[in-house]
Amino acid sequence: MRGADSYNEALFSTIRLEEFVPANHPLRPIRTWLNDALTRMDARFSAMYETDIKGGRPSIAPEKLMRAMLLQVLYSIRSERLLVEQISYNLLFRWFVGLAIEDTVWNHSVFSKNRDRLITFDAVTELFNATVEMAATEGLLSGEHFSVDGTLIQAWASHKSVRRKDGSDDDRPPDNWHGEKRSNATHASVTDPESKLYRKSRIAPAQLSYLGHILTDNRHGLVVNVRASIADGYAEREVAATMLADVSRPGVRVTVGADKNYDTRGFVNTCREMKVTPHVARNTRRAGGSAIDGRTTRHRGYAMSQRRRKCIEQCFGWGKTIGPMRQVMVRGLAKVDQLLTLTMAAYNLTRLRTLGALRPALVG
User: Based on the structure, what is the number of domains in the chain?
Assistant: First the structure.
């Protein structure tokens, strides 16, 4: 017998959000671990709001906002406006964020002010560091063998926003720049002044961009350090040296794999001064020859580092296809750095789940 096409909503419901989420859903172990990590950050969250005017309206819990920001990365949600819309009717998203069915979802504009708070107090950086500590506790890091690389991050600004710094072309139509030579020394974007014109190669067009840098551990390809920087020809090697200084330890010889862009005498000498063995791909076409010779390449570890360093491309690929790093929808170096750090924290969580480090969380 054919059933009737009818819809009668009950006045009351006793079903909890928890019951809508399958027991084996991949978000379950991530949420359990994330709740523990956010609980340990309670003192930092309290400091974020202690300067607010007493007696004012309570703000949205930063824990909920950080869960929502992480959810946006994991599910490739392009904007906060769309994220809020999804949370309003997606029961899985409500459960992950920590909102009951009856709770009203906040306005998308609240992300702007709270994002600045999170930057000031390095909350996202602490969350990323917690993923690294989790990996170290589970024995998933070698602590000795690393890979480093950088990638181009397209800024949220167009060529039409590029103007002369001295203001001499303020009256010019925004799209009438053909035939004019532009450089970072004389021009800047009025939309995002910190972004720079940068090209990936000699044949690629110059784009307003930032650079993203990550340092991965070779054992399982987990990200252990992450930075964003202004786009220029020296940033990759300078930031790489800074990140290596953070992981180098007295009396421990570490190695770092890298591509040909890092084959400069300055970077190689800096690594050796820090007791870091540079397993850098040789660039024999560079003027003066390669800075890496047979004393390094003859060892079996050099070939292993060269194979493992290619895994770092998976991090960038994930960050640009699943995550929002192909073209960021924020402006300014601080916000780009925060978004890159959050994206790599999300990547680490997916890797930890795959590697089974978060599996015990399913028991709870």
Answer: 2
Residue 63 belongs to what domain range? 17-49+58-121
**Residue 170 C-alpha from the chain's centroid:** 35
pLDDT tens sequence across 320-361? 999 999 999 999 999 999 999 999 999 999 999 999 888 654
CATH of the domain at 148: 3.30.420
Q: Which residues are within 8 A (CB) of 226 and not within 5 positions of it... i.e. 6 or more apart?
A: 128, 212, 213, 214, 215, 340, 341, 344
How far is the C-alpha of 284 from the C-alpha of 302, rounded, in Å?
17
Token look-up 């027991």 returns 23
Rounded Cα–Cα distance for residues 94 and 87 (Å): 6
**pTM (2 d.p.):** 0.91
Contacts of 276 (CB under 8 A, 6+ apart): 244, 248, 253, 254, 255, 256
Residue 160: pLDDT over 80 = yes
- Do 81 and 214 belong together in one domain? no
